Amino acid sequence: MKQQANFVIIGISAGVAVGILIASIIYCAIKWYKRHSHLRRCANERSSTTLPIRIHGLDTSVNLSASISNSNVIQGSGLIPRSAKSSWWRNHRKDHFISASGIPRYSYKDIQKATQNFTNLLGQGSFGPVYKAIMPTGGVAAVKVLASDSKQGEKEFQTEVALLGRLHHRNLVNLIGYCVDKSQRMLVYEFMSNGSLANLIYGTVQDCFYDLSMGSSGLFPECLSYLPKITKGKVHGHIQAASASVYSVNKFIHALGEEQVLSWDERLQIALDISHGIEYLHEGAVPPVVHRDLKSANILLDHSMRAKVADFGLSKEDVYDGRNSGLKGTYGYIDPEYMSTNKCTMKSDIYSFGIIMFELITAIHPHQNLMDYINLAAMSSDGIDEILDKRLVGQCNLVEVRALASIAHKCLHKTPRKRPSIGEVSQAILKIKQRRLAKEDTMSFAGDNLSQIMSRLGSQNIELSKLAGVHEGNEITPG
Ligand SMILES: Nc1ncnc2c1ncn2[C@@H]1O[C@H](COP(=O)(O)OP(=O)(O)OP(=O)(O)O)[C@@H](O)[C@H]1O
């Protein structure tokens, strides 16, 4: 009887234990399922915020967070593989908060240290100064310090970082970090060692004049003594400046050295690079982005003279939503249609790009009546030759110059819808390059043939002289 009771107790205990085991398995399974579905939901949410990017004509989605761990994910025609980014991008310190867009956030102290306490000034823009920075792992960057009185609110800044963090292309100056610290707002960009296209076309000298003449009373005495030497007839009239910084003066004096002249090949490549950058903004990014302030000062060049479009995020409301917004842009580059209707479209960017192409051809600044020269040149088929940058005369192929001028002209069409799309512009510029390459190929082929013929003739000549030698020998040694 007692034994029977023991069996019952053991049975019940075993049953309870099995029950507990089953219950805990079910509990764990439910928990795992819930966790798993949550992760899946997060992943879906994230992928819905990724940027569909066209690779070789196909639409594909690039998940930025995934691309950080897998450096080979982005390998489109113009897309930058993360592996190509500077090493500090990958090796950023753990305490750097990575925003939703995957852009590392830096503290004020980090930036202060990287810029050696904001001493190495690269330039001054309307948003504030730009400093060179050496990041902790040795990578070089450019830090744009937004003026603290900037009307950009916290939210706009964050939105901007989120937007910029999602736009990556080899022809855009990439945002690689940012700083929000108390009232400080800074943007960290990849460093472009050859500066802006405006500097390269017009020379730092002229750019310095703009810097120096921003004030109103008198030019720095140091600079005055250099005036006759440097202007070369470019800068006329009395230039006045109130408060030139030591930086401006140094830059000015430094600029007296040899001016770098962009070759025609470089200019053509720059035009193609810019077109690819805009093509990505207009036709690759979703939603499309209208730059709204395309100008030669916003085109930066890297160490190998490849051009990248900059400042595509700082002008407000530049994501085109079809609605009207305040007039943005720079005098001389603004589409007249946009000015009269206040409607900014992609075709307004095309107009500004047309102006930049004419700057590349003529080295005439839009503030120096470039439009008048363009209209004059348009009166004859070779009119553009008359306004070609003097430094290119005899140094370039005029057929190519005219072809680029003709594309640029179409971009300036009065009626926006009659202007070509950026895709069409890229194709047309590419054709100029391809035509040249094909010609070079033919010439080198012809060259090859010629050298083959010459060497064949040479060897035949040797054979003949050998024969002649034998013959002569026979004659010299008679009997
Ligand atoms: N990523 C960069 N790498 C190297 N230099 C830079 C970089 N970004 C800006 N600079 C330098 O800083 C200068 C000022 O740049 P910024 O973009 O602030 O102004 P901007 O485009 O010249 O004028 P605005 O702000 O009126 O459009 C540039 O002319 C360039 O010389």
From TrEMBL:
A Pfam family hit: PK_Tyr_Ser-Thr
Keyword annotations: ATP-binding, Kinase, Membrane, Nucleotide-binding, Serine/threonine-protein kinase, Transferase, Transmembrane, Transmembrane helix
InterPro entries the record matches: Kinase-like_dom_sf, Prot_kinase_dom, Ser-Thr/Tyr_kinase_cat_dom, Ser/Thr_kinase_AS
Protein kinase domain ranges (all copies): 116-430
Transmembrane spans: 6-30
Family annotation (SUPFAM superfamilies): Protein kinase-like (PK-like)
Domain of life: Eukaryota
Keyword Iron among record annotations: no
Plastid listed as a keyword: no
GO molecular function ontology, one term from the record: ATP binding
Name under which the protein is recorded: Serine-threonine/tyrosine-protein kinase, catalytic domain
